[in-house]
Amino acid sequence: MEKKQLGLIRNQRRPKGIVNQLSVNFIHLRTPWVMAWWSASYLGYAYISLGSYVKGFILIFLEAFINVNSKLNMGILYTFTGRFELAKQIVDPDWLLFYVPLYIFSIWGGQQLTVELNKYSILADREESNMIPFKIGTWSIGFLDKRKPWMAVALSLLAPGLGHLYTHRIPTSFYTLMWWMIIAYMGHLLECIHLSVAGDFAGVIAVVDPEWLIFLPSVYTFSVYDSYVNTVEYNRLFDQEQQRFIIDNYQNSDFPMPK
Amino acid sequence: MYIYASFDYSAFLELAITDLEKRGIAREHILAVPLDKRVEERMLLDTIHRADGISLFDGAAVLGAICMEFGVIYGFVLEWGPITWGLIGLLGGAILGFLLDYFYGRIRGHKKKKTTRNQVKAGECNNTEVIVTVFCENSQYEMVQKVLWDNRAFGVGKLDRLRTTMREGPENCGKEAT
Question: Which residues of A173-183 are buried (b: 16+ CB within 10 A; e: fewer)?
């Protein structure tokens, strides 16, 4: 009964999303300038957040590669602390100019994609096509569930990527966890925290590698923001899906209404 | 007899309904009405360019990231080092961003709407979201009620036609009127 009804009422031209083993990928309304900002803070973050993973991973990989090779972060550090001569010396122009087109594309593209997907998100809401909220396979189990947004935030603060593991967004989680661990190790983050807590600030400066440490703020804040938004939106998607299921199955015209 | 219960959207709602079906209540005798929340409805009318209702978190995250970045950078030349200044930047920026969003929203007159949506989205208010009606025999009342309560219904009520008719039957009503 339910299948027949679904086929008639819904169609599948504008799906809201799909539940998969590794992730629940779906579109929801977002603020375009915020997405543009995440791309500005780290190439490709807008794409990762929007669920456009392949594009996101290409940009993110290139960002890390170009940034480390051109010593861009050192250049940023010297520039903002007024040591312009040092900045000119350390930055490698052979690599630096690769950055410009990618940077512009990433910001523009992130903003553009958000605007486009917002339209399709509205269309999907109006079409109300059904989705299957549970997917089990050989490697993993993906499903919609009600989760706590502040738990995602707390986990992301503990280690970026854990929040995404909690919401079952595994591609983002995998990338963020790995990249965070690489940055933390190369930049001697944990040693620096240890020394900072002990109050040995001269030791911090001696030990730290700024080229790597300057990556951290965007990785941290992005993973907190993205996992929070994910949790909230997944919860809403859960509601939406269950609402459609109830309307399709438990509003039978044969129900004996009170007379 | 009719039994009414209110739920929010969760796996428990489906557990309750399927449990009832297993225990012999026909699917046609279960009627569920999801309540539309006004806040959700309004979302669709928002413009594409200022759409997301979580802007209280947007501002905090963006300003937090910017200030943390600068905290780390200037931490290299300031006394307390990059870690301490990075954390100070993150906290300061996030609070500043949150306040800016909050007051900007208030000036624009969106405050009420934003807060409600934020609360709903963060799952902070446990509003009733679905009303479930079950039609069953009087003898099944205990069982149905227990199933509903066990699966986290907010409230359960009953409507017993037989008793109601006896108390407020048409004869009685007529007498009172004259």
Answer: bebbbebbeeb
More confident residue, A215 or A4: A215
Size of interface A-B (CB pairs under 8 A): 164
Band of residue B166 on the pLDDT scale cut at 50, 70, 90: low
Q: Are the Cβ atoms of B30 and A250 closer than 8 angstroms?
A: yes
- Cα gap A226→B122, rounded to integer Å: 14
Locate the domains of chain A by residue range. Answer: 8-249
Say what the pLDDT of residue B78 is: 83
Residues whose CB falls within 8 Å of the CB of residue A208, separated by 6 or more in sequence, listed in order: A187, A188, A192, B76, B81, B82
Instruction: Give all strands (DSSP E) within A56-154, no chain letters.
Output: 134-136, 141-143
| A178-189: pLDDT as tens digits | 999 999 999 999
Query: How does DSSP classify residue A34?
Result: H
For chain B, positions 142-161, list CB contacts with chain A under 8 A.
159, 161
Q: Which residues is A134 bridged to in the sheet? A: A143
ipTM above 0.85, yes or no: no
Contact with chain A for residue B169, Cβ under 8 A: no
Contacts with B122 from chain A: Cβ below 8 Å? 149-150, 232
Pull the structure tokens for residue A31. Answer: 């603020």
Please tell me the distance from the alpha carbon of residue B82 to that of residue B85, in angstroms, as a whole number: 5
B2-35+128-177 sits in which CATH class?
alpha beta
Give the HSE-up count for residue A40: Cα atoms under 13 Å, Cβ half-sphere: 12
- CA A197 to the chain's CA centroid: 30
State the DSSP H helix or E strand holding residue A51, giving kind and residue range, or none if neither: none
Global pTM?
0.81
3-class SS at B87?
A: helix
3-class secondary structure, B156: strand
DSSP single-letter state for residue A21: S
Asked whether the beta carbons of B33 and B27 are under 8 A apart, the reply is no
Q: What residues does each domain of chain B span?
A: 2-35+128-177, 40-121
C-alpha–C-alpha distance, residues A225 and A222, integer Å: 5
Q: What is d(CA B100, CA B94) in angstroms, rounded to the nearest whole number?
A: 10
Distance CA(A103)–CA(A161), nearest Å, equals 24
Instruction: Report, in angstroms and rounded to the nearest whole number, the Rg of chain A calculated over CA atoms.
Output: 23
Q: Return the amino acid letter for B15.
A: L
Give the C-alpha distances (Å, rounded to integers) separating B139 from A186, B2, B145, B160, B167: 70, 12, 11, 12, 21
